Amino acid sequence: MHERSIQASYRVYDSISDMSAEDQELLTSARDSLSRSYAPYSNFQVAAAARMQGGEILVGTNQENAAYGQCLCAEQNVLANAGTNLFGEPVTALAVTARHSERKMDYPVTPCGACRQVMREHEDRNKHHIRVILQGESGEIFVFETVKDLLPLSFSSKDIL
Ligand code: THU
Questions:
Q1: Is the dihedral angle over the CA atoms 49, 17, 111, 103 positive or is it negative?
Q2: Does the active-site annotation cover 75?
Q3: How confident is the model at residue 136 (pLDDT cuts 50, 70, 90)?
Q4: Mutate to test the pocket of ligand 1, among 34, 37, 46 (most ligand atoms within 8 A of CB)
Q5: How far, in Å, from the CA of 112 to the mean position of ligand 1?
Q6: Please, are residues 98 and 109 in contact by the beta-carbon 8 Å criterion?
Q7: Sign of torsion over alpha carbons 42, 50, 87, 115
Q8: Topology of domain 11-160, per CATH?
Q9: Could you tell me the CA-to-CA distances from 121 to 46, 61, 62, 92 in Å, in that order?
Q10: What pLDDT is attached to residue 113?
Q11: pTM score
Q12: What is the pLDDT of residue 128?
């Protein structure tokens, strides 16, 4: 028997102004989209902004439903949009932010497991890593250079194709 360890690294920014102009724009686009979230059940609004390889920015928000199982996460929403309307064009960066009507989100909200799996598939399918930028309403900003650092040992197309 022997042990292995998994390492993942990410950068932490204290201020948006320390980031590149492109990433600032992306995170700001996500923040500006929060009001388009439909979250009457959780009161937890999430927005994701995707930077396409061609430079375009697409946005998505969480869209809830009275039948809770049909709730759609912001990240999956924007990646489905990118995969359809800009078919074959890689997402190169994805900024995600969130706010809650009853408490202050002063730390980054990290994507749920299902969203990480969908993000991983987008990386594989389009053969490009996605830089993932995460911030709450305020506070630290986490930057992961690839989804693989958010989902180590992941199941993927390599296992079945
Ligand atoms: N949500 C997202 O949009 N992304 C995530 O990564 C986690 C959760 C949404 C789904 C639901 O509308 C609300 O947040 C509460 O779970």
A1: negative
A2: yes
A3: very high
A4: 46
A5: 7
A6: yes
A7: negative
A8: Cytidine Deaminase; domain 2 (3.40.140)
A9: 21, 19, 19, 13
A10: 98
A11: 0.97
A12: 98
